[in-house]
Design a protein that fits this description.
Two copies of one chain form a homodimer.
Chain A: H1 6-22, H2 28-34, H3 41-54, E1 57-58, E2 67-68, H4 70-80, H5 102-117, E3 120-124, E4 133-142, E5 145-152, E6 157-163, H6 170-184, H7 194-204, H8 208-223, E7 229-232, H9 246-258, H10 263-270, E8 278-282, E9 294-302, E10 308-316, H11 321-338
Antiparallel strand pairs in A: 1-2, 3-7, 3-10, 4-5, 5-6, 8-9, 9-10
Helix pairs in contact in A: 2-3, 6-7, 7-8
Chain A binds a DNA duplex (30 and 30 nucleotides) through helix 3.
DNA sequence: TATTAGCACTCCTATTTGATGAGTGCTAAC
DNA sequence: GTTAGCACTCATCAAATAGGAGTGCTAATA
């Protein structure tokens, strides 16, 4: 970091900012005019030569201007980005009806974010692992089907239909319901362990096998922990020529469409370290191979009680980091409010 | 149709089949050798000239071979396609776990179909409008929230959380449950009309306002009738050069990602006319503007009792119609079985 | 010593040119 | 009615060419 003098830093900053705008390699003459350093292009050339040797910029080919390397971007993001608190005004299109199902809210968030940033976006459903069981109910659907309804603290409702050999009588159903609720309510998923289960089976007496089936279904349902991922704006990548060739575009869009790989961005991002909850992956820093020519910025949004999700933006390396990080910060604070009301 | 003699038809057939394979304009010499007509290229040329005048084929430019026009493709699909009952063997990769939630099954179907055809695919959730209410249950979630669970005949479960001013006592809850079930069970959505509703409110007595809220919620939930559309294999279009340029690819993928426009393919397809339930849109025949360079083949799958959905394949005009239509026919019959088991 | 002007050099990009070849349309002969 | 022959068109490709942006180096300058 200190290997750079103040002047070199200014020049690097200028190079990167110019490149972010134009996407073209930037030459010494441009910098000479762009900055207020009042230096001739020749001097700039010397400095640029140094910067290249230090690995902050690279030349796509001899006699071309310079473009930032991953290291350059990294330096820019870490040290040069002024986190001027973005005018919040232009982010107010994040007014989202929060009466809808969560699924729709998340889709809408992804879409809005994609439209306002012109990058591809992703958002995951929140992880409820720390969430507690609030209410369980078994009902006799018909002679050989049982319906289990499970409600978690955050009002997330899950259903499971359980096939049955023969119908349960009313009394048994009642007993099971009481048993399930009294035992499981208030427990989070990791807290439902073998001991709890065997104790329940014991108490169920004649119906222990049914309890077994039900418990299996319940735990299966709960631990499904389906990390839903929603993406939007995949086609925005066509706005950036450096990502638009068939090969790259196809791979990238495929990754966004198939989604599983995106999950790797989540776990990393949830292990938040800095204060902001914002992570930036530049080029090969990303765990996803097909995104080596992209930058990915992820943020963690947190609802109540450790219920966390991830929202991310995928764009070219020369993305507008300032705007993106501002948008994400803004969004994550807003998301908090959106989920206050009951939703499925 | 009868404007074409037998020989012209044979030549048109040969042109189209050759073009489907190669994607290149096909010349008179190729046809002269390819067919068993034993005609010289010169004769073929004359015939091709006629075919062009009649609008079945076009020349991309002077001194290029001919490619089929939309009219040509249409003729091919309507008259030349031998519906040889495809060897079913190679379609057996449609083994799908049917224990999963329907949403996942549909996603999986779309994915599998995309992989096996190398085209983009879409599938809609089935329309349950003709489906009947099987079971309704209200439960007291906590002091000011009611949980409504509605199960339809096909075991589709819906939940709705209803905010409440003050808790209901147990007896009232019981009465409401009985009332709801006895009145609504067995009714399909269109059958729940104003008369039914006002009658229910009457019977509810003191709780008529609560019944109102519940009914609103129920009907809202039921009529949500969200036509979910799932797509897959969007990036397959990059396998066809004629669709791969940035502009077209971007528009197409956007349409597939945003999905609403795809709904227009559904309503049309549901108004089935031919016996097969398979519809083919060639180029501009499609209601979707961005698909003017594509062909779209849709099929209607029908579960029990008028519960219908649409599955479709989007590819280049020179798609393998035989294979595609075979796959769809095969798939729609198989889908029938897949949903037999309970699913959410 | 740091800066700058000047210049040769590199190499990307766009444009031109010409050769090639596939394919056609037409005419005349079979 | 069919075919051979031939002139013509036009996309495609490769090589050649010119232009220009930008560099690195050297020598002069403050």
């Amino acid at each position: 970091m200190d290997e750079l003098g103040e002047r070199k830093i200014k020049i690097l900053d200028a190079i990167i900012r110019t490149y972010l705008e134009t996407g073209e390699p930037v030459g010494s003459r441009t910098i000479s005019k762009y900055t207020d350093l009042n230096l001739s292009s020749a001097t700039i050339r010397n400095e640029m030569s140094d910067l290249e040797e230090l690995g902050y910029i690279v030349q796509p080919h001899t006699s071309a201007g310079r473009i930032p390397s991953d290291k350059g971007y990294r330096f820019y993001v870490d040290h040069l980005l002024k986190n001027k608190d973005k005018e919040i005004s232009d982010m107010k299109d994040f007014v989202i009806e929060h009466t809808e199902r969560m699924e729709n809210v998340l889709k809408q968030v992804a879409r809005t974010l994609a439209q306002s940033t012109n990058y591809a976006t992703m958002i995951t459903s929140p992880k409820y692992s720390a969430n507690k069981v609030k209410f369980i109910q078994l009902s006799q659907l018909d002679d050989n089907q049982l319906l289990a309804v499970i409600v978690m603290e955050a009002n997330v409702v899950k259903n499971k239909i359980i096939p049955l050999e023969e119908p349960l009588d009313n009394e048994a159903l009642l007993r099971l319901n009481v048993l399930l609720n009294s035992t499981l309510n208030g427990l989070s998923i990791p807290e439902i362990n073998l001991a709890t289960i065997s104790k329940m089976k014991e108490q169920a007496g004649d119906y222990s096998d049914i309890v077994g089936i039900v418990l299996d279904a319940v735990s299966e349902t709960l631990s499904q922990e389906e990390l839903e991922i929603y993406t939007s704006g995949a086609t925005n990548i066509f706005k950036y020529p450096e990502l638009s060739d068939s090969q790259k575009a196809s791979e990238l869009i495929y990754t966004l469409e198939e989604k599983q790989q995106l999950a790797t961005l989540v776990s990393d991002s949830l292990s938040d370290e800095a204060g902001t909850g914002i992570q930036v992956y530049i080029g090969n820093e990303s765990p996803i191979q097909t995104m080596k020519d992209c930058s990915v910025v992820t943020a963690t949004y947190e609802l109540s009680q450790g219920v966390k999700g991830t929202v991310g933006i995928i764009g070219p390396k020369r993305m507008d980091y300032e705007k993106v990080m501002g948008s994400l910060k803004e969004l994550t604070t807003q998301l908090d409010g959106i989920f206050k009301k009951p939703s499925q």
